[in-house]
Amino acid sequence: MRILITNDDGINAPGLEVLQSIAHDIAGPDGQVWTVAPAFEQSGVGHCISYTHPTMIAELSPRRFAAEGSPADCVLAGIYDVLQGGKPDLVLSGVNRGNNSGENTLYSGTIGGAMEAALQGIPAIAMSQFMGPETEALDDPFQSARQHGTAVVRALLDKGIWTQDAYRIFYNVNFPPIGAAATKGLKVAPQGFRQGPGFSAEPHFSPSGRKFLWIKGGPQHIPGEPGSDATVNLEGWISVTPMRADLTAHDLLADLTARLA
């Protein structure tokens, strides 16, 4: 098996090392793991692509490349440059430092990398490690992802639903903010929504009096709807959410057609 891995925390992020270990477990001794990751952190870029300017790419070591672009750029670079059009069998994105549950999904470059792979017709899984007081107290805050990640990927490859339609299914996996031994197992969960301010902008002034804005995230340890991804994560479960890039509100089409007739 040939696996392409990427992330949004950057080529030197510790979560990428965790993902590389998972990918090598899945690929096996006869497989290949190729890394194309952003040269610098790209958190919050979503499914952005560098459409209006070129992307520099450099080989750091065999099968390991850094690109000055987003995770989606890295997936495109991996397919069309590094692998010269030979698509990988699987794309893994992560392991993100911090959760991509709930509304965070919409901003996540980790999700963006997996989404681009799905649009290219390649099976893809995004993985993130929910952080909190318990993980920060561990020697390895990625402990849950490191010890359970391979089993989750194998379960999805063996038993997951992989569609062949235009907007193919990809998966969003979030590991709970606890140690590996306390992690309860898997739960399939929909994307949730945490009530609260979410992201906001906070003004600050430089010594010269110029105003700058910092984008601030909202509280992360607020559960969403019962059974949704952030909620089951906070209850100690690994959440698995099937996703597709089609943003149409299909449940409203018939009603809206009737209203506008």
UniProtKB/TrEMBL annotation:
Residues annotated for a divalent metal cation binding in this entry: D8, D9, S43, N96
EC number from the UniProt entry: 3.1.3.5
Keyword Nucleotide-binding appears in the UniProt entry: yes
Survival protein SurE-like phosphatase/nucleotidase domain segment(s): 3-194
One cellular component (GO) term of this entry: cytoplasm
Catalyzed reactions per annotation: a ribonucleoside 5'-phosphate + H2O = a ribonucleoside + phosphate
Compartments (UniProt record): Cytoplasm
Cofactor, free-text remark: Binds 1 divalent metal cation per subunit.
EC class (word): hydrolase
TM ranges: none
InterPro entries listed in its UniProt record: SurE, SurE-like_Pase/nucleotidase, SurE-like_sf
Function: Nucleotidase that shows phosphatase activity on nucleoside 5'-monophosphates.
PANTHER family according to UniProt: 5'-NUCLEOTIDASE SURE, PHOSPHATASE, PUTATIVE (AFU_ORTHOLOGUE AFUA_4G01070)-RELATED
Similarity comment text for this entry: Belongs to the SurE nucleotidase family.
Protein's name in the database: 5'-nucleotidase SurE
Species name: Neogemmobacter tilapiae
